[in-house]
Amino acid sequence: MSTKLSICIAAALGIVTMPVFADNTSVTPIAGIAAVDGDISEWNINDGSPDFSANMCTAGSVGADGNCEGSGKELLSTMYSRYDCNTNTMYVMVLREGDNWPDKSADDAWVKIYDLAQTSQIENFSWVSPDGVEGSTLIGYEASFTLAAGTYNDVQVHLNVSGDTSSTGKKGDTMSITVGENCSVDPELTACDYVYGVHDRGLNDSRLFKYSADTGFVGLGKHDGADIEGLDISPAGEMYGSAGDNTRDAGAIYKIDMVTGEKNMIGDPSGYEIDGISFNPVTSELTGWAQDVGLLNIDPTTGVIDVIVSRSGEVEDISWNNDGTTLYFIESNHGGNDPDAANDNGVAQTLRSYTPVDGISETVCGIQGKEIEAIEVLQDNTLLVGYHNNKTQIVKIINPDSCEVILDSGVDGTHYNDIEGLAVCPPPVVIAQ
Q: pTM for this structure?
């Protein structure tokens, strides 16, 4: 794992930089990127969000305090923004407020920078709807465009909402934006400078993402109808995923493009519910776990599966340590009840280990609280863990020997709040001479 990745994990679990407001019309977007695809999972829209930029009021009637002013003038929508210093790209998202609904009129959804032109700057555009795809019921739009670093003094973001004009102001009396001030241009990130994850948007609607301190959350594609549960990166730097059983490809093994998020199935699906996979960093063998089946050996080139250890019960995820000697797995204890019928929130969990010599341990340590569904060994052999349906802290770092939480401030306020799998590039293996 690279130094940048270590920094990015610390940043993910620490303090973020809030946007700068000089007054109602002065905005400095945070550094970051977004996928303009109609899926807002990567954006932070909670109160106090660092992505928040401006209120959008009826007829652009925004007061000096940034709030709507004037009789009958109300908050109709909200603007969020990010700026990528490496590519000089501005990202904008506009979402409705209250019971107001956007009008599906692309001619009325625009961003104008009057310093540059009288026409919209938007180059990439997507409507946003509740199901994450363009539909008749809209909640806003995403957009991006190239914008050189600097300050622009007459910027207007616009959307028609419920038949009214919703805007950040009016030409000649609207907001200014300063981009490039809060970030420095870094060397181009490599694939291994990111943490990768899969979010369970629904029963079988998986969302892949990656995260770095430089970019924030970046969506890697929507896989509607998929039930991706396991995720890992091979010593060769290739990412793989495994499917649960809530899909027609139950038990499938996928090879996943780390840039585009595109998945390709390897061989035929097994029909198992494969909740976790992990590459041994020394032998490069791919290990998996299937519910009520047990520990698996998976051929990553053919998808052929052999059962190593038979065991019933529900294991959420697995991860080899960096020596390739111990496999950790997190098991949910349902007390004999059907795991598929039980509510996992609050269910006691046990961290166990497996070694080829000693087999499966009884208990390493116990965990009580929010359900952990993803684990990934980091460079120092601590465990990065991801949680099920936890909107306040989606990841923590724990000591695998004691289950003690080492870093308690998780990334919060993101729509990626149901983490099924996590993956980082394995550290280089040092071979003794």
A: 0.67
